[in-house]
């Protein structure tokens, strides 16, 4: 597992540094692109309760979700976050969450593999995990080689390869059902330069598909030997499942 050398080192200070970076022109542009991709994915995922692990920026990334009950947890009380907890120790019971959104959560987690295990624990059978992460094999990865030693967000993050994430998910009996690569422009903070390079977003999928700055993965939790039942519309309305209320974990 990669070790993070982010400075500042405490979870609260790191969370504030992440939020500050996502408020920069580059961070806002990345959020907008990822939010647009989520608006294409989330309406297809259903359930009673959705959980977002961390709120890196100001954009509501769950706004397109059809799930009626939504929780956002963060390491500190931040705008839009209802609960304070670490992603490695989620304050939810087993099999109580239908949809888990991880917006760069693994990039900055203390133990990203443990986060994936926790997500598996709280997800219901056939529940979905949606993961956004930085792609190390990209122009963003090259920038990281230069800035990582300075402990600057986001370059001090883990930048986990897609292959590693897929291995973790497969070991936990997840099935990857969808994926996409996003944001082909280099990580420049100059807004005019970014506007001139907008053409890279239109041609990236065709000419350099593996060079995107971030990736999006949708994985479904499978339970061996379980055959999901399809309920009629009337039975779905009648069979409401009570939701276990979360309790903040230190």
Write the layout of secondary structure elements.
Layout: H1 11-22, H2 25-41, E1 49-53, E2 69-74, E3 83-84, E4 97-103, H3 105-108, H4 112-122, E5 123-134, H5 139-147, H6 162-171, E6 174-182, H7 191-196, H8 199-207, E7 214-221, H9 233-238
Parallel strand pairs: 1-2, 1-4, 2-3, 4-5
Antiparallel strand pairs: 5-7, 6-7
Low-confidence stretches: 231-250
How would you classify the helix and strand content by structural class?
Answer: alpha/beta
Whole-number average pLDDT? 84
Report the β-strand fraction as a percent range.
15-25%
Helical content, roughly?
A: 25-40%
Terminal CA distance reads 24 Å
- Shape field: globular
Helix tally equals 9
Number of strands: 7
Order of helices and strands: HHEEEEHHEHHEHHEH
Biggest sheet statistics: 7 strands, mixed
Please give the order of strands in the largest beta sheet. 3-2-1-4-5-7-6
Q: Please give the radius of gyration in angstroms.
A: 18 Å
Comma- or semicolon-separated keywords:
250 residues, alpha/beta, seven-stranded mixed beta sheet, 7 strands
What does this 3D model show about the protein?
- This protein is an alpha/beta fold.
- It has nine helices and seven strands.
- It has helices at about 10-20, 25-40, 105-110, 110-120, 140-145, 160-170, 190-195, 200-205, 235-240; strands spanning about 50-55, 70-75, 85, 95-105, 125-135, 175-180, 215-220.
- Strands 3-2-1-4-5-7-6 form a seven-stranded mixed β-sheet, sandwiched between helices.
- The chain is globular and about 50 Å long.
